[in-house]
């Protein structure tokens, strides 16, 4: 379904013309966090319907909540595979295809999923869009619901949901403040699985499965090279070795292309050096992408200074996948040194990258010291975060190392570090380097005792390889000793991303679903 992200985004814009649409990152999160709970409907090869849902335990489902809290701020990140209820938090149908029962078919898919997984039932917050129109005729939202049930008031959404076998449980006040026609209210609608009889809530167990991925981190020696071809040969060597070990990923250090300055006839000023490096960008992307396909390995190509279309220089990680695609992740936070000497500017967005081993994230060095970025990647479904870094001292290295370990614990994911060692005379900022590349894990029973799957020797060029089990992350998130992602207090705090109004002083309104433009909801 990852290929449908753009289509879903366009559909939401068509269906919700009075609200900002989901970001593509939010849609990726919904799909990555529980792909089995997301469905799309196609009509003549056009995407005309979408619904998203997640499993949750009964105490969470039936506690007072609003949409932001229950949906993980739109990412579906509260999905709990041990929960015994299916909670629907998005239903969207193209208003141009009314009358062909798209909404009904999506509800049927949800019902089939609940039956297949032996879930107790389905719950969602349904709109009551005629409430504002009849507000003066009723005493309260509950009175409005009672009159709809008695047939005295017609509400198309509620009638549609009732016709599909859902029953009202209670009114959820302030569920969706942006739903002006419902004045923020919603009806908790419930369908109970007739094939399941339970007197008490049950917690499902998550099997300890195996989803093995092999990752390699290259601790690269900075060396003088005579030309671009010699540099590329050094990189190819490690790609070849990692491929021989059947690795799924290899990651190189931040600014690993600074070696290309070693064969300049004279030492360049910082501004000249960055400009010169940027000239290699097209060749580098083409050659690394070729390695990825020829050696059948996904390559996180460290980072490389690149002049952008607007003329600014950014520090960019090029991620070349073995399917031939090339992705970019800019460094969000340049260090004071990068800003001062090289005038490097920060990027504006960070999102997961879909790979054949699932969604991954990339944070370049200093970015790993900002927990908001890792949390966004985790919300979008990342289970591995790669951190290319470049540090000149043990203190600088440990800042990255300790923060990366914290990111692994708080997001219950793997974090893979790759750094430079050695030195490059006459190349600014590469006088000395310090690194101990490593593969870090959460700290819980399925993982290494000290939270380190593997690590290199300090300041020695080497390739460090380890198998990691992504299924252990799923288990830890659902049944671990601590469950950092699941236990977040969405009722108290959240992170708001300015995805729409970058640098313009505008606050991006929250995007919440309000059902289809006719019947739907949930």
Automatic annotation (TrEMBL):
Stretches assigned to the CN hydrolase domain: 213-470
One example GO MF annotation: acyltransferase activity, transferring groups other than amino-acyl groups
PROSITE patterns linked: CN_HYDROLASE (PS50263), GNAT (PS51186)
Region (Disordered): 501-522
UniProt KW keywords: Transferase
SUPFAM superfamilies tied to this protein: Acyl-CoA N-acyltransferases (Nat), Carbon-nitrogen hydrolase
Residues of the N-acetyltransferase domain: 1-194
Ion transport in keyword set: no
Top-level division of the source organism's lineage: Bacteria
Name of the featured protein: GNAT family N-acetyltransferase
Species, as recorded: Pontixanthobacter aestiaquae
Classification of source organism: Bacteria, Pseudomonadati, Pseudomonadota, Alphaproteobacteria, Sphingomonadales
